[in-house]
Request: fold
Amino acid sequence: MSTPVVIAENLTRHYDVKGGLFSKGGTVRAVSETSFKLEPGKTLAVVGESGCGKSTLARLITMIEEPTSGTFSIGGQNVTPETWASHRADVQIVFQDPYGSLNPRQRIGSILEEPLKINRPDMPAADREAKARDMLKLVGLRPEHFDRYPHMFSGGQRQRIAVARALMLEPKVLVLDEPVSALDLSIQSQILNLLVDLQERLGLAYLFISHDLSVVKHMADDIIVMYLGRPVEVGPKAEIFAKPRHPYTKALLSATPMADPKAKKTRIKLEGELPSPLNVPAGCAFAPRCWKVKDKCRAERPVLGDEVHPAACFFPEA
Amino acid sequence: MPLLDIRNLSVDFATASGQFRAVDGVDVNVDTGDILAIVGESGSGKSVSMLAMMGLLPWTATITADVMSFGGQDLRGLTPRQRRKIIGKDMAMIFQEPMSSLNPCFTAGFQIKEALRLHLGLDAKERHAKAIELFEMVGIPAPEDRLKAFPHQLSGGMNQRVMIAMAIACSPKLLIADEPTTALDVTIQAQILDLLTGLQRETGMALILITHDMGVVAETAERVQVQYAGQKVEEQPVGDLFETPHHPYTAALLAALPERATSRKLPTIPGVVPGQFDRPMGCLFSPRCQFADDRCRNTPPAPCGPELGLARCHYPLNAKAEATA
Reply:
């Protein structure tokens, strides 16, 4: 087991919402007390439905936002807003929508060179260009693409450009926020292969955020399942898929459609929807939708233990 | 006689850079009680062919078809007024984005009652009762209150239920669901898909499900038609399609599913879907097909027989078993 490159402890991010004319103010508990370790060359997947805080977690790790409480360290050094600037190069992000994340007025070359211009101001222009051209090759684009604009590329190619840009500063950690969910199936596999390939070559650690369990099953080493801002189950991929312990994980797995018409499975039908993060239930957040809820669940919040495969549930599956 | 019969439907768009053919000779056949899935990537013309039938395309579109009939009525020569009599009543459609397909200025109740007023001519009291009944049918809790809610006060899943309630308000013979669950979470998706198939079973209507998600297809559809770059490349019952795909595109698409992966590297389909300017001469899939030869590149293939899933291919896959059988 290698030394983790990112260690996060009890990361929490709450937003205060001001009351408006018709509404009361409150606190949105986007992420609460989330801890994890990320190792080089490994992929940690964060899964959950919209509003579960997975993207907020990505924004905390990429230092786009400051945690309300909790700490995390990169490469053994504690990260605080004062030291953000020196750590930013280590963590880079690829966003979901490759159409929205590239500046339409910049050529690909200058998109790729920009991180270097900002973070390595003393690098000669010729070196910068050479590096950008190498990167283009690494992500499977052709040299003539260097002078083109983003609109001349398809979605898959743009996502390659976004990956290339993220890799320009030689980060240790790549945060992938739904990197393939905007892409067609035939393109999705190309990008997933590229990510696998880059991880093997560069020893990157991936924080892979996705709601698509079939993609997660293919990519991840370890998985965090989140529900309403809190991790409810953490464990190695094989165990989570084979023996889910938290009822929510079980329901999520059973709700995911499988591309096999013969597979007859019993689908757990969840009633209702995710509660609002403005108004988190007192006990277990999943209690209102859970089929094995007991009085204890509504009153007390179960905590996530520190076993190998913990689940935040009073009555976990065997 | 099938409920919906479309033969050789083509849709051309007049664009600034010339004509663009979005749908190219597509046949669609649906009978009462069928669940047909139309699968394809973006740009495969799956939505456009249905919109063309509903008459919802802009004026830049030219629609041609040999046959386009619904319940025995020819849809081609209809005036907009005649068409509106059918649409929303016998034929209804649900769209991908429930949030943007409802009018934000009116309550959910007003919008569902509008359909009841126009098509069924019920009075206010009957409309109210029917609206509540419909909301209950699609599983909206506290329907009386939800009738007064505006779309922004409801979640995505609830809005999609409102859309479904509106679509089934007049007991349509055919319901077209265009990516009904793409914008929703998986647990909500499961609820909506169960609801749609349940309604289909109860009412016996025909359901056309447009999607790109092979998992959704496998779990809900009975028959699948695969579209690529505006053409129908294959049509089979769902079990056979997943087991013995005949068109190389279908086979490659299935192989690219992460859940079917056998190694860390996924099989890929190189290249991209052809656009307006790089449409190949022969088979549209030939530039990306691993089996393509000169014949594929020069001559567009005609669809094979039904025993080969109507595959539009010169060299359909998995053909041997049928030949010997």
